[in-house]
Write a structure and sequence with these properties.
The protein is mainly alpha-helical and 251 residues long. 66% of the residues lie in helices and 0% in strands. Helix 1 runs antiparallel to helix 2 and helix 6 packs parallel to helix 8. About 11% of the residues have low confidence.
Length: 251
């Protein structure tokens, strides 16, 4: 008896679904402006005895991603008509025709040539004399050009970890040079910061708490370092003695 009741309910529900699907099929067939894909889906649904499922809509026209506007490049003040650094002192390059001048100008120069010219311009602002190429001021100028170039590169390529590490190392070296220059010659330090547009921030005070554990660890590290230096010194003495003995034996 229970099985008969369950069978009747299943038949009634299936008959109701078939009636609803037939009504949907008749409505779709009555609309001639319906798309072919929709009619095909409706026919497949009617044949299967179920509701018609429309094909998924594919969003091909997506909005373009907005590019982040970076800061102005340090090379933007270089005019494209300026000659390259290798040809600026050649008098023949000044009197040649326009086509050759364009080939020798910065308009067709690569990025490295423009960086060289920018480096020379910053060096000329802070160098002590014309032959100065190794002073603290010149090294600060060279590091400044590198740091700004890395910064512009990282604004476009944010996941470039290697160049980010190089930029941080260059910043640390420049901080050390500026710190020493500030202690030795404050006037030169102020001139370099003003000419190169550097904002010097003072290093933070030593705020680490000197606990007993940290003091013991530091003393142990110093002791290990001294022992290693003693061993290296003894090894160098042994090497010198062995070399001296071999030289006397050969003679």
């Amino acid at each position: 008896m229970l099985a008969n009741i369950v069978l009747r309910t299943v038949l009634k529900s299936s008959a109701g679904i078939l009636r609803e699907s037939g009504a949907v099929c008749s409505v779709l067939s009555a609309k001639p402006w319906t798309s072919n894909s929709a009619l095909l889906g409706a026919r497949v649904g009617c044949a299967a005895g179920s509701f018609a499922v429309l094909p998924p809509v594919r969003h091909y026209a997506r909005a373009a991603k907005k590019r982040r506007e970076g800061s102005e490049s340090q090379l933007s003040d270089l005019p494209p008509t300026m000659l390259k650094m290798d040809y600026a002192a050649v008098p023949l390059a000044q009197t040649t025709d326009d086509i050759v001048k364009r080939l020798l100008s910065l308009e067709l120069a690569n990025h490295s040539e423009k960086l060289r010219l920018k480096t020379e311009q910053l060096i000329a602002k802070v160098q002590r004399d014309k032959n100065d190429r190794n002073s603290v001021e010149v090294r600060v100028a060279i590091l400044t050009v590198k740091i700004r170039n890395f910064r512009e590169h990282l604004q476009k390529h944010q996941k470039d970890k290697a160049n980010k590490r190089r930029m941080l190392m260059a910043i640390d070296r420049r901080k050390k040079l500026l710190k020493n220059l500030r202690l030795v010659n404050y006037d030169a330090f102020e001139t370099v910061c003003k000419q190169l547009g550097i904002t010097y921030t003072f290093p933070p005070e030593y705020y680490r708490r000197a606990t007993r554990r940290w003091l013991a660890k530091k003393a142990f590290c110093i002791k290990v370092f001294n022992e290693v230096q003693k061993q290296k010194k003894e090894e160098r003495l042994m090497m010198k003695k062995s070399l001296a003995s071999t030289d006397t034996g050969s003679h």
